[in-house]
Amino acid sequence: MQLYTILILAFGMSMDAFAAAIGKGASLHRPPLKEALRTGLIFGVIEAITPVIGWGIGLAASQFIMSWDHWVAFTLLLILGIRMIVEAFGKDKAVEDTLAPRRHGFWLLVTTAVATSLDAMAVGVGLAFLQVNILVMALTIGAATTIMATSGMLLGRFLGAAMGKWAEILGGVVLIGIGTSILVEHLGLLG
Question: Which of 44, 120, 129, 173 stands the most exposed, by the fewest C-beta atoms within 10 Å?
Answer without folding.
Answer: 173
